[in-house]
Amino acid sequence: MESPTDSFIGNHVLDRRIRTTLSNAKITLCELNLTTRIIHWSVDQSFHFFEFSKSYDGTFDGYFKLIHDDDKERVAKSLEHLNLDEYITLEHRVLWTDGTYHWLEGIGKYYQEDGMSLLIGTIQDITERKRLEIEREDWERRHKLVADAAGVIVYDYDIESGSIIWSGNVKHILSFSNEEMGDINRWGDLIHPDDRESTFKALEEAQSQLKTFEVYYRFRRKDGEYRNIYDKGTFLSDDGKAKRMLGMMSDVTELMLSRMALTQSENRFRSLMNNLNVGVALYDVNMVPVMHNKTAFTLLGMTESQFVGTAAMDNEWNVIDSDGDRMKPEDFPIPMCIKEKKAIKQVVMGVFRPITKDRVWLMVDAEPIYDHNKDLLHVICTYMDFSARKRMEEVLKEKNQQLTASTKEVERRNERLLEFAQIVSHNLRSPLSSIAGLSDLYFNSNEKDQDQAVSYIKDVCKKALETIDDLNKVLKVQQGDRIRSEKLRFEDCLSSVIELMKISLSEKNIVVDADFMQAPVIKYPPIFLENILLNLLSNSIKFCSKTEKPEVIIRTKKIKNTVILYFTDNGLGIDLSKHKEDIFSFGKTFHLNMDSKGVGLFLVKNQIRTMGDEIEVDSKVNEGTTFKIVFKNQYE
């Protein structure tokens, strides 16, 4: 291989300062022998100066392999058509050690010497310069496309000369030709006087800081009309100094007018919202309010600063539903609207307001708002003060309950009246029929038979009066709602009853075992409680055991506000398989006892039913009977 010192470059001594300058500029001298296909580099430079790929062998063919495929054909053709003493410039990309391509610029002159074809010159790394050129070309291409498509003006401002190259829709927007737009001074003259100083100040600031120039100003058209212009430019620099600015100007007059109209409309809308007596708030998908009127945070008992940023499911609100049950945050209208992706309407919420320490009833609607892709964008929520209506509903509910209770009471009284009428009809029919028959006998018989008929009539009338007296007692029981309840002691009431019946108890040697320790007191009408005890005890006396020692056991028990009375005897008992449905019926008897009229248990059942209480019976023949009376909410 030919030594570098034998080459043209090696035979010339380079000044050290020149070599240093070339090195700093990333320039090296080279000699390409087109005949031998050998490259010689300057003596103090090597091919590693450019960080060529390690596969490079120092030959031109090896160098050619490193050239980018898109540049090889162009380089080869340029070297094939060289003229003597002709200068040639070749820009091409070469593979670097790190796998990237760098742009190199080769400038040389073609010689022939000693039968050899030589190309002598320099090679410089121009990657950075090329990058800027490509960026500029790309910027110009893109901005021209944008300008043509969007109808804007594109300009190229040379800062040093002040000249401006205009393109795009200059004529359409400003009525000037590209030439009439002129330089930087002409551009400044056409800016509205009130905007000129601020515009140039913004330009100088952007230029000094190499930042984007972006400004709005009014610009005079050729016909004298001023248009609103949006101007945005980017500076190209060299060594930190702005050299050029590439930018675009667009007519935004209609946009500005639309913005003004939108602002006015928004102001009117906000004024309208703030004067509504309905709270309106716009929430984002995270349930944070982004827009609202005054009524919204006023209804919720908050200041505006507290409302802004407060989540739509803030636990401090302590919300209950229309039935008074605590609402879970996930059941609030806004979370439900987001979850179900549909409108949630007319949700009644009782919101506790932390500041005012009171509860307000609100009717809340939540409506989803979607973007053009049908993705949820916002939820608009309205709050209407429902407190007055809620109070009216509660009053109406109470009135309805009272009406329902009154209706039931009327129905109950009608039932009792019908029952009483049937009892009267049933129990008076027999004596009246007897009287009618005896009257016929009286008028159709002799004197002796007439006396006997009168005697019979007296007996029948007596029985009829007794029946009427019994029916009168029943009527009084059925009017028991007029009887007032009092605080009573079971022991006192039972003592009064035993005093009335002590002869009967003594005659049949009946033992009464009473224990009221678990529930000694009850609130009840005195006449009712005494009558219940009297009839039950009378029943036990009438049907006491004839074989066993007669015994009556009385106990009370308390469960919460309920008192239970157990009344047990060991008497004859009742066959429930036959008489269960008739035990408390009027006039029903179950044993051969002339003193039994079937009225006592009927009166007991009616008195207990009148007070809204219950009575149950358990009985076995010849073993005895137990009555269980449940006095509801009567414990004192």
TrEMBL record:
Domain PAS stretches: 139-210, 265-309
InterPro entries: HATPase_C_sf (IPR036890), HATPase_dom (IPR003594), His_kinase_dom (IPR005467), HisK_dim/P_dom (IPR003661), HisK_dim/P_sf (IPR036097), PAC (IPR001610), PAS (IPR000014), PAS-assoc_C (IPR000700)
Keyword Coiled coil: yes
Highest rank taxon of the organism: Bacteria
Pfam families: HATPase_c, PAS_3, PAS_8
EC numbers on record: 2.7.13.3
Annotated ranges, domain Histidine kinase: 423-635
Catalysed reactions, semicolon-separated: ATP + protein L-histidine = ADP + protein N-phospho-L-histidine
GO MF annotations in UniProt: phosphorelay sensor kinase activity
Xref: SMART domains: HATPase_c, PAC, PAS
Keywords, alphabetical: Coiled coil, Kinase, Phosphoprotein, Transferase
Coiled coil regions in record: 389-416
Boundaries of every PAC domain copy: 88-138, 213-264, 345-398
PANTHER family for the chain: PAC DOMAIN-CONTAINING PROTEIN, PHYTOCHROME-LIKE PROTEIN CPH1
Official protein name in the record: histidine kinase
